[in-house]
Specification:
- This protein has 204 residues and is mainly beta.
- The radius of gyration is 17 Å and the shape is globular.
- The strands form four sheets. The chain has a six-stranded parallel sheet, with no helix packed on it.
- The chain has one domain.
- It has three helices and 13 strands, in the order βαβββαβββββββββα.
- The chain has helices at 32-35, 81-84, 186-194, and strands spanning 16-20, 40-44, 66-70, 77-80, 92-96, 103-106, 114-116, 122-126, 138-140, 146-150, 163-164, 170-171, 180-181.
Length: 204
């Protein structure tokens, strides 16, 4: 899927984009003018898609408020760190049933360590069986109030470095249980629960 540059391109006016059941879709090459006005982006059942952003150069989703990805089994990561840093307006992120994802944000070698999601209030990670971490650097979620992590058996922490989520008071780690109050910090709470031998695997 390639969105070309054009002064009269109607795609530049789109605010909502949903890609669903495109089994042959492998990559998406974005243009800056196309993503500039995009507010909601959903990708569902695109089993051959390797990356949301085809090129290594970061794409700026500066007005995106909602990102949902579901049933995309060829993704090993969701976004590069440079693209993630452009998500200043993002309020909701949902990633579900993506069997190959190992990290949500892939850290680029030349990029700085910390990523801040200033307006993200809701983060849902569900059935990501190979997910190891959200990001390999530091993370800050100053507006995060809802965090759900289901069936992410290989993830011990969201990130190995500093993690800030001052507004978050609890996290839901099991579909059938009540939300868990944060004891010390978010990483410590997730690590404690997921390392317990009898609670690291939940029954469907």
């Amino acid at each position: 899927m390639f969105c070309c540059e054009s002064g009269n391109n109607v795609l530049q006016q789109l605010k909502v984009l949903q890609l669903e059941s495109l089994e042959e879709l492998v990559s998406i090459s974005w243009s800056d003018s196309f993503v500039r006005n995009l507010e909601s982006f959903e990708v569902i059942k695109c089993g051959s898609l390797k990356s949301l952003v085809a090129c290594k150069k970061g794409v700026s989703f500066s007005n995106l408020t909602c990102l949902k990805v579901k049933d995309c089994d060829s993704l090993s990561y969701l976004l590069t760190s440079s693209t993630a840093k452009s998500l200043g307006q993002l309020k909701r992120m949902e990633i579900k049933n993506c069997d190959s994802i190992e990290e949500i944000v892939c850290k680029e070698e030349s990029d700085e360590d910390e990523i801040i999601f200033p307006k993200l209030s809701c983060l849902n990670l569900k059935r990501l069986f190979k997910l190891k971490s959200f990001y390999r650097g530091s993370l800050s979620f100053p507006s995060l109030e809802e965090l759900t992590v289901y069936y992410c058996y290989n993830m011990i922490t969201l990130c190995p470095s500093t993690l800030k989520a001052d507004k978050l008071s609890q996290v839901k780690l099991d579909k059938f249980s009540e939300a868990i109050e944060l004891e010390i910090d978010l990483n410590s709470t997730i690590r404690k629960i997921f390392l317990k031998e009898d609670t690291s695997i939940f029954i469907f």
